[in-house]
Write a structure and sequence with these properties.
- This protein has 12 helices and 37 strands.
- By secondary structure, the protein is of the alpha+beta class.
- The protein folds into 4 domains: 27-85, 2-Layer Sandwich (Alpha-Beta Plaits), CATH 3.30.70; 110-320 and 453-506, 3-Layer(aba) Sandwich (Rossmann fold), CATH 3.40.50; 329-445, Glucose Oxidase, domain 1 (3-Layer(bba) Sandwich), CATH 3.50.30; 542-616, Immunoglobulins (Immunoglobulin-like).
- Strands 1, 20, 21, 22, 23, 24, 25, 26 and 27 form a 9-stranded mixed beta sheet that branches.
- Strand 9, helix 5 (167-176) and strand 10 form a beta-alpha-beta unit.
- Helix 6 (207-219) packs parallel to helix 7 (236-247).
- The longest helix has 17 residues, at 453-469.
- This is Alkaline serine protease.
- Residues 1-23 form the signal peptide.
């Protein structure tokens, strides 16, 4: 069977934008009591505004050429609760491709194996429904159980089933592509989905659109929300919408962002939203995955909150999934009967013939007539190499990379060539040059490889739906905690800003909930704290932790046994205190409200440590 690779389209590249901070220009959100909304809408229109969204508790409108302060002046009315910028939100995806042939057989993406999703059976009778807020799901791709999919149309972005580019269809496939005989299989195959298209033709949307989408997701009966998107600047309206969804028992998941820095992106940065980073197939963090700090505030007001930074990761590098039918391409390369990886460059079609090595193909060569040209990269452009092959009578071209790895490229625009052309890896050069015959093909495909935290986010959502379907009495927050409690540690030992708790593990989370129930290992109390008991890493050192509140502030009592050595105490992976001659310590957090904290004690200067104990407020 010919090995194939999927090639990106221009649409994928145009959607490969980062979650950077973008001003909302002159569009604003106005929070208002519903019973007074008519008055405020009328006032906005009198002020020359164009109203775009009329949702529960707020409207969104453009005041052309007006600053936020000017709008606040125009809309100075006691019925107005808040006016804020309507922040832009973008898809968070990068481009990449790899080998595979989903047009001929069903492929299970590596992230399914990596996250143990293949070890858990999805329960279709549990009532799980995932709301995908994105660029739409194109109904041309056949790899879905379409009877399980609904959506909401938006007059500003068009039909939910007419995708704006590849992004939304790719995301949906990772979550719930059908388990059939072709294409790919999702994390929760065939799960019910509700699609809301928030991105316009330019590839972005607004925070008000996401806030309204959250309301529509809840109205549609969704348990989970997937947002493979983000942008700069927080929005109170947006934050409230996702907090309401979470409070109602749901789970909201969003992408950390693709700028490879410590900037906090929204909506992932809200406490009610689970932030997801991306790792590769080798359990390494993706270099583009953002890693905001879990701390906020300054000086004495600094607080630590793990819900505003990366909590878990999943496969998001070279992720194969669905795209609108026929807009991507696959390629094949066979030399002397052996399959080789390839990358389709241009010109659909197939060709087979004897091999002719043209060097760097800087000029025409009559020896190429009727043959497949094998060409080294370098000196002139890919287009000119293929053009010289075709002008020499060649029927197809294979261009070999001159550095390690696969050659990914195109022939540019304009492209005057017509013969099929593929790229090949440097490692295969000797075999390809020595081959007596070669066949190549470039054909349309319904599948593509993309990379980004956009791709990791639906992997986590799909795993959550898969696990939740086997424990349907749990809340979304309990599923969220189970995924963190059982994640595969990545990077530095323990929780860190890159991986959070680690790579999600479906089978381990499922077993954890089976053994411990929906509350997992966290027991609550009347004081609002949590007591997780103790843990043992294989040494005798055992830690117990009990959280409580006094006058609203958080305290955690720690005690350890089976060691009288000097001890170093860690919270969320950072050292907070070293003690001597004692077996207990009280951590006064000077923080009110909620929070989740991981504690561990280690004999100072050694690797003898207790198990990590989590306290939840």
């Amino acid at each position: 069977m010919i090995k194939t690779t999927i090639k990106p389209t221009l649409a994928a590249i145009l959607l490969a934008v980062s979650a950077s901070s973008v001003a909302a220009d002159d569009r604003y959100i106005i929070q208002v009591d519903n019973h007074s909304k008519g008055i405020i809408k009328a006032l906005a229109k009198q002020s020359g505004a164009q109203i775009h969204i009329d949702a529960d508790g707020f409207i969104a409108a453009t005041f052309s050429g007006k600053s936020l302060d000017e709008v606040k002046g125009l809309m100075n009315n006691p019925h107005v609760k808040l006016i804020e910028a309507d922040q832009k939100r973008y898809p968070a995806a990068l481009f990449n491709d790899d080998t595979g042939n989903p047009m001929q057989t069903q492929i299970t993406p590596y992230a399914v194996y990596q996250s143990q999703a293949d070890q858990v059976t999805f329960n279709p009778n549990a009532g799980m429904k995932v709301c995908v807020i994105d660029s739409g799901l194109d109904d041309s791709n056949p790899d879905f159980v379409w009877s399980n999919i609904t959506g909401d149309n938006d007059p500003g972005t068009g039909n939910w089933f007419d995708a704006g580019g590849e992004h939304g269809t790719h995301v949906a496939g990772t979550i719930g592509a059908a388990d059939n005989t072709y294409g790919v299989v999702g994390m929760a195959p065939g799960v019910d989905m509700h699609i809301i298209k928030v991105f316009n033709e330019s590839g972005w949307g607004y925070s008000s659109g996401l806030a309204q989408a959250a309301q529509l997701c809840q109205a549609a009966g969704a348990n989970l929300i997937n947002m493979s998107l983000g942008g700069g600047g927080a929005s109170s309206t947006e934050d409230n919408a996702f907090a309401d969804f979470t409070a109602a028992g749901g789970l909201v998941v969003a992408a950390a962002g693709n700028d490879g820095n410590s900037v906090r992106s929204y909506p992932a940065g809200y406490s009610s939203v689970m932030m997801v980073g991306a790792n590769d197939a080798d359990n390494n963090i993706a270099d583009f995955s953002q890693y905001p700090s879990c701390s906020s505030g300054r000086g004495k007001r600094v607080t630590t909150d793990e819900t505003i930074c990366v909590e878990v990761t999943a496969g998001g590098v070279d992720t194969l999934s669905t795209v609108p039918a026929g807009i991507s391409t696959s390629s094949g390369l066979v030399a002397d009967g052996s399959n080789f990886a390839s990358s389709g460059m241009e010109n659909m079609g197939s060709a087979a013939g004897n091999t002719y090595f043209m060097g760097t193909a800087e000029t025409t060569d009559s020896g190429a007539a009727g043959n497949i040209c094998v060409i080294d990269r370098g000196v002139i452009s890919f287009h000119d190499k293929v053009a010289n092959c075709e002008a020499s009578g060649g029927i197809g071209a294979v261009i070999i990379n001159n550095v390690d790895g696969m050659l990914y490229g195109t022939l540019g625009d304009p492209n005057s060539t017509s013969i099929p052309a593929v790229g090949a890896a440097l490692a295969d050069r000797s075999a390809l040059v020595a081959a007596s015959s070669i066949s190549i093909s470039v054909e349309a495909s319904d599948y593509a490889y993309l990379s980004g935290t956009s791709m990791a986010t639906p992997a986590v959502v799909g795993v959550a739906a898969l696990v939740w379907s086997n424990h349907p009495t749990c809340t979304g927050t309990e599923i969220r905690e189970a995924l963190k409690a059982t994640a595969l540690d990545g990077g530095a030992a323990g929780k860190d800003v890159y991986f959070g708790y680690g790579i999600v593990q479906a089978a381990d989370a499922n077993a954890y909930l089976t053994a411990n129930g929906c509350a997992g290992g966290n027991g609550g109390g009347d004081n609002g704290g949590g007591d997780n008991g103790g843990g043992d890493t294989g040494t005798d050192l055992t830690l117990t932790a009990s959280g409580y509140k006094s006058k609203g502030s958080q305290f955690v009592d720690l005690s350890w046994s089976n060691s009288t050595a000097d001890m170093t105490i860690y919270r969320n992976g950072s050292e907070i205190q070293s003690v001597s001659g004692v077996t207990s310590y009280t951590d006064a957090l000077n923080t009110k409200g909620g929070g989740v904290y991981d504690y561990q004690v280690c004999e100072t200067g050694t690797t003898t440590c207790s198990a990590t104990v989590t306290v939840v407020f």
